Amino acid sequence: MSYHIVVCGSIVPDPLQTLNPVDSPQGPALKNEMMLPAVLDPWAGHALYEAANLAAKRGDCRVWLVSLGPKAKLQQVMMAVAQKAPFELVAVDGPASGFTDSFQVAEALAQAIEGIADLDREKLLLFGGWQSASRGSGSTIQMVAERLGIVDQFQGVDQLSITDNGLEVLERIEGGSWLTSTVQGAPAAFGWATGELPEPPNNPQVGMMNMKTIMPALQQAKPAQLGNGFGVLGVSLPQVVRETRVVKDMPVDDIARELVDWIQG
Hints:
Keywords: Electron transport, Transport. With about 260 residues, this protein is an alpha/beta fold.
């Protein structure tokens, strides 16, 4: 069976930069955010490389990258990402800061996915980052899947293999172990951890092929009106309180009771 793989991935400020939060008229923001160099979210990058690898093995799959961010920043990042793996870009023009609510982000991404003309929902594999360098709630890809009616979801995925029985998933669980699951096929959603692939080398030919669709996609990017998920009402250091008593030969039960009373008070 051929698959239509949709990767949800945003752009984030380069983690090597100093990020200073400030209060703007629109709410919390980063100081000089539009001036900061941006990169593709690392978790989304793993998802994209895994999608491209799966598509290359099958030979009959298509890969879309759905990305939400300012068009100017998206263009800068895509110039580099386009050389890593073949994909078709679906751009959504909107804020990429970590202060937007993940529910609103998921709604915008789901609408963009629903608008892909050639997408077959019966063949859909939804890829995304298990976490994010900006929206680290681990909830965005789950809500996108729910919005699209996808009930088979896996989080913390490190490996995905196609077998005679369907898709075999290696999923992280507690205690440094993995859970192996098998899903019959599409549609399904996968929140990727680090995966098992290194970052692909640059390929100028792949970059030129991708740029044929990236530039029109950026020009046709629809705006997404997203509000800030929260506001900062005030910040203050906790008050330092120190109350010391020196007591000898006090029973252990009395010490424990006094500590409980002090905590509850």
